[in-house]
Design goal:
Helix content: over 70%
Strand content: under 5%
Structural class: mainly alpha
Low-confidence stretches: none
Shape: elongated
Largest sheet: none
């Protein structure tokens, strides 16, 4: 089951990178509100990351996903294919990452208490 979840996580990561870096913005699926797309992507990545690797320090997935969000914005700014870097997108990515990690941490604590 864990392997399946890891495959899903990395597949989701690949889809998110494709959508974020695709020069053709018509490829974008889902909400027309860019910030909603960012929030949905990063809360999902954070939730999966924390649940898949619960023994890692919580700062590790936070730093990884923050760096990922920053990297995406930098690449969008320099690739010159109709994309623009947006600090507000990065802020949404960071907020969604924090929300996803907190949600996942709450689930882990609840599950642990139920097991005892």
């Amino acid at each position: 089951m864990r392997l399946l979840l890891q495959v899903l996580y990395f597949s989701l990561l690949g889809v998110i990178l494709f959508l974020a870096l695709s020069p053709d913005v018509s490829v974008m699926a889902g909400s027309e509100n860019d910030k909603v797309n960012h929030f949905a992507a990063f809360i999902t990545l954070a939730l999966f990351a924390r649940l898949l690797w619960p023994r890692t320090h919580i700062l590790l997935p936070f730093l990884w996903l923050t760096a990922l969000g920053a990297g995406i914005e930098i690449l969008q700014g320099v690739m010159g294919l109709g994309r623009e870097a947006d600090f507000k997108d990065l802020a949404v990515n960071v907020a969604a990452t924090a929300a996803g990690l907190m949600l996942a941490q709450g689930l882990l604590v609840t599950w642990k208490q139920q097991m005892e």
